[in-house]
Amino acid sequence: MYRLSSVTKTFKKNNQLVTALDSLDLVIEDGEFLAIQGRTGHGKSTLLSVLGGLDRPDSGTVELDGNLLTRMKESEVTRIRATTIGFIFQAFNLIPTLSAQENVEAGLVPLGLSPDERRERAQEALRSVKLADRGHHLPSELSGGQQQRVGIARALAKEPRVLLADEPTGNLDEDTRDDIIDLLEEVRQRYRLTMILVTHDTSLAHRAPRVGVMRNGLLIFQESPRPERRVPNWAPGAYADDQ
Amino acid sequence: MSTSFFLLYLRRELLRRKRQAVVIALGLAVGVGLVVTVGAATDGVQKAQVAVLHGLYGIGTDLTVTTAPPKSDDNSKVVTPTDTPQHHDFLGPSMGLGVLDAAKLADIARVPGVQAAAGGLTLTNTKINLAAAKDVKSLPIPTSTTVNGLDVAHQGLGPYASVKIDKGRSFTGADAAARVAVVDSAWAAANKVKVGSVLVLANKRFTVIGLAGQGQNAPNIYVPLGPAQALSSFQSMKTLAGRVTTIYVKAANGAALDSVQKNVTRLVPGATVTSSSNLAGAVSGSLASAAGLAKDLGRWLAIASMAAAFLMASLLTLAAVTRRVREFGTLKAIGWRSRQIVLQLMGEALITGIIGAALGVALGFAGSALVEWLAPELRATVAENPGSAPPEVSTISGGGVNTRVAPGSTHTVAVHLTAPMTLSAILLAVLLAIAGGLVAGSFGGWRAARLRPAEALGRVA
Predict the structure, then answer these.
(1) Which pLDDT tens digit goes with each residue over A6-24?
(2) Residues facing B224 on adjacent strands
(3) C-alpha dihedral, B273 to B276 to B278 to B280, nearest 10°
(4) b vs e for A197-226, b when ≥16 Cβ sit within 10 Å of the residue's Cβ?
(5) Residue limits of the ABC transporter domain (chain A) (predicted)?
(6) Does pLDDT of B394 surpass 60?
(7) What is the least distance, in Å, from the CA of A171 to any CA of chain B?
(8) At what angle do helices B299-323 and B423-450 cross, to 10 degrees?
(9) A interface test, pick of B8, B10, B15, B334 with most A CB neighbours within 10 Å
(10) Interchain CB distance below 8 Å, B335 and A107
(11) What is the pLDDT confidence band of residue B411, given thresholds at 50, 70 and 90?
């Protein structure tokens, strides 16, 4: 479970202070699927970075399963990223010189597995995204959708508890986009993952039970068109702002 | 980190950035090749110096002890043209050399740190044919032959140490008092002398027992010290019995050399005690100029080129890290530690350095071959007698009334410059290139380690 309390993050841009996260309070339950929308520059990616331990807030606390990420050493946060959090990127971020299978294995390197175990887990992850027969292909030999599947396999192979997806369908056509989001939902449910999805795409966002909109560093929640799948949550700051 | 994955990733990245890896490796190779070539040329110049000096002072000699002649006797002879033609045959200590009491040898041998000491007599036999005064149109050129009297019990000290017998035999202990001679092969060929020939030196007959190959600057004739001491024909020095012109000293080790030099200087007041490094300074001519060039310009050229190669490799590696920001940001995001990324970069830099080393060694070989091919013949001028300063003028002076004959002074010899590639030069090349690669890798690693993943991913997203 994530618990964010009074998280503030500012940046300097053109000599002006920009508030990306403004005293944000947020709770994300285990297994929850949360979509975050918002215009460019309103703090979506910053929130994802803070959740993933890629960036530290200026103030406030970020807690994951009882671990205060904001007070941990960098090496400990790195360890949590290696074991607990899976990242999925808009541009796939595959290493172009490595094959699909080797890219998935790259995500397992920090775990210190034996080469055989690493290979087996990578193959299993590729099977789960229906790319078992493309393991030896380089990213340049795969379509955009296939590359994103490799990215998902890389995130899944480490058996994380959290998936952080930053515009995972932003570079894909409409059909492929649906395939990818179906796949994400499927793996989330199969592995009971907590998933935070950042997207511009409203139709995609509305597949999540809870949807928040980032606006000037504030997270504003709105009713989901899929209330039956909504997970109970607690986000007083956001709700207050939403009124 | 998994070794197998490290090697796989390393290989793929180097192949992907083949052109850049080759450019960095070539940059390092050029720097290293230049360092190695300059090093080889410097080594060659030093070897040439040593070869020139060894011919005169002998291998294994650490110090030479000499003394200047009294001002009233500079071992020269004044010959005045008369009404009748004259033939003169002088033999005595070579120019610039005085004599030392051989008893000093025992004192020097007792100096702490002295392993061995031996006396030698360096003589010059000068012959001149002078026409009658009315017929003198130009000054005749005397012919000089150098004769070295050596202690046959210490053949490893002095110029005889560099002798290799081509024909016949060398001296034995039994030859100490015998009138026998070992003759320089080139001199023997020029003077039609063979093993068994008889040489006449100051009216004494010597039998040639061996022909010797040696350096260009070496004495022409070697005879045992005892018979040599009985050869002087200079009026002012009727006998050289119990005298030597040079004492050759070998120190027990290099560390003792300084103290030995000081103690020997104290023991023989007024004598010149010269070490091999002092002797190197006495070499003049184009060889000395080449040595200076290699030492000064060459060294700075090598340092500058190596620094340029390091800088270029570092900048290219930094540029590569900048191009790979997203890749490293991604690796950090998926849990790679900074040190794993640094290790990866250092590995790539190390391989590039090794390729640079291989190319650098090849360039070094090519450079040294080029130096040997292009280098002009150098000339070395050295004092004929160790410890004496090389006189500016040696031969004959005078204006038709008096002719001054100076028996020996300096030698000028031609030296072919070599640039030998040694194992140490190759090792230096390998180490430099690898160091260059690692320096470049460290800069890249430092840059990558400081990379904040959120920033790295945000920069390109």
Answers:
(1) 999 998 888 888 888 999 9
(2) B150
(3) 150
(4) bbbebeebbbbbbbbbbbbebbbbbeebee
(5) 2-241
(6) no
(7) 11
(8) 30
(9) B334
(10) yes
(11) low
| Distance from chain centroid for Cα B402 | 41
Q: Which residue has better confidence, B28 or A162? A: A162
Q: Which residues of B touch A92 (CB under 8 A)?
A: none
Range in A57-71, A125-139, B310-324, B391-405 the model is least confident about: B391-405
DSSP string computed for B327-347: HHHHHHHTT--HHHHHHHHHH
**Torsions phi, psi for B100 (to 5 deg):** -120, 150
Mutate to test the interface with B, among A73, A93, A99, A114 (most CBs of B within 10 A): A93
The dihedral region occupied by A93, where left means phi > 0, alpha psi between -120 and 50, and beta the remainder, is left
Token pair 């050289």 in the structure block, residue: B240
% chain B with pLDDT above 90: 12
B400 secondary structure, DSSP code: S
For residue A45, the one-letter residue type is S
**Does residue B319 contact residue B444 with C-beta atoms inside 8 Å?**
no
Q: What residue has token string 């595959």? A: A94
Look at strands A162-166 and A194-198 and give their pairing: parallel
Residue closest to B243 by CA, chosen among B85, B101, B346, B118:
B101
Q: Name chain A contacts of B333, Cβ cutoff 8 Å.
A: 52, 54, 81, 87, 93
Closest C-alpha to A101, from A138, A128, A152:
A138
Query: Could you report how far apart the first and last alpha carbons of chain A are, in Å?
Result: 26
Backbone angles phi, psi at B116, to 5 degrees: -155, 155
Domain covering A2-221, topology: Rossmann fold (3.40.50)
Return d(Cα B164, Cα B212) in angstroms, integer. 5
Instruction: Look at B417 and A165; give whichever has higher pLDDT.
Output: A165
* Phi then psi dihedrals of residue B55, to 5 deg: -60, -30
How far apart CA B265 and CA B108 sit, in angstroms, is 10
- Please name the amino acid found at residue A28: I
Q: How many CB atoms lie within 10 A of CB B126?
A: 21
- Residues of A engaging B, defined by a Cβ cutoff of 8 Å: 45-46, 49, 52, 54-55, 75, 78-79, 81-83, 87, 89-91, 93, 95-98, 102, 105-107, 109-113, 115, 118, 154-155, 158, 166
The DSSP H or E segment spanning B364 is helix B338-374
To the nearest 10°, the Cα dihedral for B406, B407, B410, B414?
120
Domain segments of chain A: what residues? Answer: 2-221
CA B206, CA B225: separation in Å to the nearest integer? 13
B163 vs B137: which has the higher pLDDT: B163
What gap in Å lies between CA B191 and CA B176, rounded to an integer? 26
Q: How many CA atoms, within 13 angstroms, populate the side-chain half-sphere of residue A142?
A: 28
Residue A33 structure tokens: 């699927």
Identity of residue B443: F
Cβ neighbours of B15 in A, within 8 Å: 97
DSSP string, B102-129: TTHHHHHHTSTTEEEEEEEEEEEEEEEE
Backbone phi and psi for residue A9, each to the nearest 5 degrees, phi listed first: -140, 125
Q: What is the pLDDT of residue B159?
A: 81
Q: What is the pTM of this model?
A: 0.62
Count of CB atoms situated within 10 Å of the CB of B318: 16
Q: Please name the amino acid found at residue A204.
A: L
What pLDDT is stored for residue B123 in this prediction? 85
Tokens of B179: 């009138």
